[in-house]
Amino acid sequence: MSRISKEQVKHVADLARLSFSEEEIEKFTTQLDAIIGFAEQLNEFDTTNVEPTSHVLDIKNVLREDVAVPGLPREEVLKNAPDHKDGLFRVPSILE
Questions:
Q1: Which residue stretches of the chain have pLDDT < 50?
Q2: In terms of C-beta density within 10 A (0-12 exposed, 13-18 middle, 19 or more buried), how is residue 73 classed?
Q3: CA 83, CA 35: separation in Å to the nearest integer?
Q4: pTM of this prediction?
């Protein structure tokens, strides 16, 4: 017994604004039915003692500690700027 019909595949394709031939609809119907069947097999497993997880492996953050360090001196940064005033970068005005 099929868990998904051709009409349902056509309806979803229409919602997604996709156009398929009858051959493609038949192919997708078969493939989606197989996917739904696999998902139903997963429901048969007893998971009463299994804690929910977001990932199958215990993953930890491997980034280094965030340590504040002094930045470059303002004068050194501004010496490469094409235009600066009062310790700030100057850019062309875009508002009129």
A1: none
A2: exposed
A3: 61
A4: 0.49
